[in-house]
Amino acid sequence: MECNRRDFMKVTGAGAVGLSLMQLGLDIRPVQAYSARLKTENTKEVVTICPGIISKTDRDLAGTG
Predict the structure, then answer these.
(1) Which of 25, 44, 28, 47 is nearest to 36 (CA)?
(2) Is-contact 45 54, C-beta < 8 A?
(3) Residue 15 CA to chain centroid, in angstroms?
(4) Is residue 46 packed enough to be buried (19+ CB in 10 Å), middle (13-18) or exposed (0-12)?
(5) What is the 3 state secondary structure string of the chain?
(6) Cβ(45)–Cβ(61) under 8 Å?
(7) Residue-wise pLDDT tens digits, 4-29
(8) Angstrom distance (rounded) from CA 48 to CA 46
(9) Can you say how many angstroms the Cα of residue 55 is from the centroid of all Cα atoms in its chain?
(10) Cβ–Cβ under 8 Å, residues 6 and 14
(11) Which of 32-36, 51-55, 58-62 is least confident?
């Protein structure tokens, strides 16, 4: 895996922000509880026009059934 300076700075910055939030007492348990309640059964992944984004939908956007 090749890592350039920009990628290194992104990873280092994200790690620093994550550690800072944990030190401030950010509790992610409510977020995890909320996300567990979200309905994701009977959905399928679809690729959007935005690069790198995969979405889930319960509708057939192609109209094939």
Answers:
(1) 28
(2) yes
(3) 16
(4) middle
(5) CCCCHHHHHHHHHHHHHHHHHHHCCCCCHHHHHHHHHCCCCCCEEEECCCCCCEEEECCCCCCCC
(6) no
(7) 888 888 889 988 888 888 788 878 78
(8) 6
(9) 10
(10) no
(11) 58-62
The token duo for 17 is 């922000």
The residue type of 27 is D
Token pair recorded at residue 28: 């992610």
Residue type, 17: V
The total number of residues written for the chain in this structure: 65
